[in-house]
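In response to a reviewer's request, we include the raw inputs and outputs for one of the modeled complexes. The four entities were modeled together in a single run.
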Amino acid sequence: NMCVNTEYIIGEVPGIRVGDSFDYKAEMSVVGLHFALMSGVDYLKTRRGRMLATSIVASEGTDYNNVFMGDQLLYCGIGKDQTSLEKGNRALMCSMKQNSPVRVTRGYDLGNGKTSFVYQGLYVVETYWVEERAAGKRVFRFKLRRKVLGGGESSREASLQI
Amino acid sequence: NMCVNTEYIIGEVPGIRVGDSFDYKAEMSVVGLHFALMSGVDYLKTRRGRMLATSIVASEGTDYNNVFMGDQLLYCGIGKDQTSLEKGNRALMCSMKQNSPVRVTRGYDLGNGKTSFVYQGLYVVETYWVEERAAGKRVFRFKLRRKVLGGGESSREASLQI
DNA sequence: TAGACGTAGA
DNA sequence: TCTACGTCTA
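The model returned the following structure tokens for the whole complex.
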């Protein structure tokens, strides 16, 4: 890949601050904020074989229906067939159970096909449920809440979770 | 777009030499060698409304069956429905009629999903035909030949064609 | 709005 | 091999 920083990490990425914006997913990949060029969820596997989400991108448009409200984010799950918790969706569930922070980047639709991605900071998955949609489609919905800053949780503690 | 050089031009791109290689289509786009990130054919419309191909990328793999043999290239047409000459295919046909040079870049499959793109120089479309494939699929096939270097055709003459 | 010789990762 | 919250042009 074209990444400089190639390490999947939980929590803040050194050098990246809340409010930092990017024009392309590829830029986010290069700096290690979000590696996947297309997928909306990055995740890793711990030594114990546990999956943990590292980063999500919540974009506008299509029928994702991601909702930012205050310090909350209602994030639509990933994938065509969301009948079972797999991949990114499973990782988000595991992050919830572990109270593991997830980086959130918001994708703004600037019109004329342009997008701007703005890093929102660390969020924690509080709960999730299943939504029934038209044509019998099911999607997972995750509720995340912005992590309180200065909560005394050091990056060392975060790394110990792994 | 993320391009620095944003001008579609016929012929050589200043600063790009035969043999120059690129890891990503995005790099080729930035330098103005080939703008399209996905499509294999770049083209422009002249003031007279004539289409002319500026650049093609001939990749290995899938069922493109592009064949480099000596100074010749057998290039598979573009698109799902190749029953009529449209877009890039039409542009290549027009380039043939106008004897207008087309930049050719070869895409090497390095395995493990990696690709290397190497600029091959200017080619001229000599002829094209239709190939029948399985399942009644039709594809256009273009025969290009490497342009003889030092042929005395100046870039000014090339621009006059437009 | 849809199509296109892309990329990385599971 | 396939999927994936991309990105550009027509």
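As requested, we also summarize the result in words. Residues 66 and 75 of chain A are 5 Å apart (CA to CA). Residues 1-2, 26, 29, 35-39, 87 of chain A lie near DNA strand C (CB under 10 Å from a C1').
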